[in-house]
Amino acid sequence: MVGLERIKAVRAFGLGLAVALLAACASMPAPVSVLGEGAPPQAASAPDFDPSAPPRVVDRRAHLQCVPFAREESGIQIYGDANTWWGQAAGRYPRSNSPAPGSVLVMRGYNDPGRGHVAVVTQVVSSRVILVDHANWLNHGEISTNVPVADVSPDNDWSEVRVWYIPNRQWGARIYQAHGFIHPFVMTAAIS
To answer: Please, which residues have CB within 8 angstroms of residue 155's CB and are 6 or more apart in sequence?
Structure first.
């Protein structure tokens, strides 16, 4: 009986640890699933993309969250969870729905407004596709580079995006809501 109780305690500890690790970053989106049976066809929801420099995970052991990575890469000095960046940028940094290299894409969490994600724009490929570098998108603290993000919003305003899923080399199945882009130069008060 003592052995059975010990096994139950170890299982409970393991489950608790797994839950804690999965909930560690309130600033990261849930993992993006891949297109599967019953999912909308790719062409209907995201443009084709064939990058010359393939998206890849460059540091699997970085143990970073998206916020410190985006702050360091962009120079935007905002702190706190990714879901607070859009509001914190108001009046401090220019915000828009137009991507530019060096700007930070701010996304809302999938099915959870208390979560979010930030990624640094490295290239504008077209009016509907950008490349970003970001950390922890796959939920393992990794750094990923040259990751395509497609504007799939009906009004072409970057309010809805789809992110390339590196492990399966295709667009992820989820559509994320986006606030827009924070640009890295500080706004100054008008001089009268």
So the answer is: none
Distance CA 131, CA 120 (A): 8
Residue-range definition of the domain harbouring residue 36: 2-182
97: domain CATH number?
3.90.1720.10
Residue 38: inside a domain: yes
pLDDT tens digits, residue range 61-97?
A: 888 999 999 999 999 999 999 999 999 999 999 999 9
* Contact of 146 with 56, CB cutoff 8 Å: yes
Q: How many residues does the chain have?
A: 192
State how many domains the chain has.
1
Does residue 128 sit within a domain? yes
